[in-house]
Amino acid sequence: MRDPSAGVGLAAAVATVLLVCCAAAQQNSSGDRIKVVANEAARRVDISIDGKPFTSYMWPASLAKPVLYPLRSATGSIVTRGYPLEPRPGERVDHPHHAGMWFNYGNVNDFDFWNNSEAIKPEDKPKMGNVIHRAIVTAKNGSDHGELVVDADWVSGKQQLILKEHTRLVFRGGPKFRSIDRITTLQAQGEKVVFHDDKEGLLGMRVARALEAPSDKAEVFTDSSGRPTPVAKMDNTGVNGVYLTSDGKTGDAAWGTRGHWCILTGRVGDDPVTIAILDHPRNPGFPTYWHARGYGLFAANPLAPNIFTNGKAPPMNLSLAPNETVTFRYRVLILSEIATADTAESEYKNFIASYR
């Protein structure tokens, strides 16, 4: 005789399988292609697109500011330098404050936020500044985009709170692109804040060795405090990066010129890559100056007309009264192609249409 309980057990098992399958189908049908997953214990938020890692917002104790690290193309190629977080063979080890992608400035009320790192001598620490991550406000997954909203404090080397930062990061991606929108609002606190005209700023990244320009000589670069950093001549095998600005400046000629976009093109291994930084007309100092160096620093700095024109333009010295705010809007785009000026211009128009 057939045991009736066997049928009940089988039915329960089938029901369980159906529930699991339905739950999985519902999760997949939610359409959350872009995942933004916080792990505060590890001091990071991981962003993935279509199941593949894109980047992480992180605030390790070894750095003087939060960074996005590493940045990857849609094909998985890493387009940022590993040093100082994860040194890789054959890459440069200069400028230890150049980690991933970051946002800070070289002279805020006479404190240097840009050059701060573990390499700074103890006696110089009071002259530096730290951007200290304070809170994850929002971390959202999405089908079209993911979003991370964070708060941070800009604190001087004398432990004085100078600025409050509120940043919204929007992540998008598809089969051939990745993008990050960064909208950062800075608020002065108890006293006037001055961003003194200084070349070290504002939105910056340090790119992978392959995306540098081939170097034919050793150089020494000096910051605004007179600290020299040697940059060595290196083996140029596989090194092929080229800058192009919206004003038509290429290579080393891009440095210190203005434009509403700048692209860096090259190949990482066999993968064609373009990194674009897109400025916005509502940003102070628009169009930005490009602090773009052949050794791999790619930065937009709209606040230093005097420095970048060798004194021909007056200093900007952007000032905020107590409690006054200023907002900066940028898009960083990583394309899996060698983009043209027409492509960059089209992407720029798409960006400004998003934030009128």
* Rg estimate, integer Å: 23 Å
Largest sheet geometry = 8 strands, antiparallel
- The shape is globular
As residue ranges, the low-confidence spans are: 1-29
**Strand line-up of the largest beta sheet:** 6-7-8-9-20-16-15-14
Structural class given helices, strands, pairing? mainly beta
Total number of strands? 20
Proportion in β-strands: 35-45%
The helix tally amounts to 3
Q: What is the helix content?
A: 10-25%
Tell me the span between the first and last alpha carbons.
Answer: 76 Å
**What's the mean pLDDT score?**
92
The helix/strand order is: HEEEEEEEEEEEEEEEEEEHEEH
Descriptive labels:
8-stranded antiparallel beta sheet; single chain; 356 residues; globular; 12% helix; mainly beta; 38% strand; 4-stranded antiparallel beta sheet
Provide structural commentary.
- The structure is a single chain.
- The protein has 356 residues and is mainly beta.
- Helix content is 12%, strand content 38%.
- The protein is built from 3 helices and 20 strands.
- It has helices spanning 4-29, 305-308, 341-354, and strands at residues 34-39, 44-49, 52-58, 67-68, 101-105, 129-140, 146-156, 161-174, 177-188, 193-195, 201-206, 219-222, 228-231, 242-245, 261-268, 271-278, 289-292, 297-301, 318-320, 325-335.
- The strands form 5 sheets. Strands 6-7-8-9-20-16-15-14 form an 8-stranded antiparallel beta sheet, with helices on one face. Strands 1-2-3-4 form a 4-stranded antiparallel beta sheet, with no helix packed on it. It has a 4-stranded antiparallel beta sheet with strand order 5-11-18-17, with no helix packed on it.
- Strand 6 and strand 7 (146-156) form a beta hairpin.
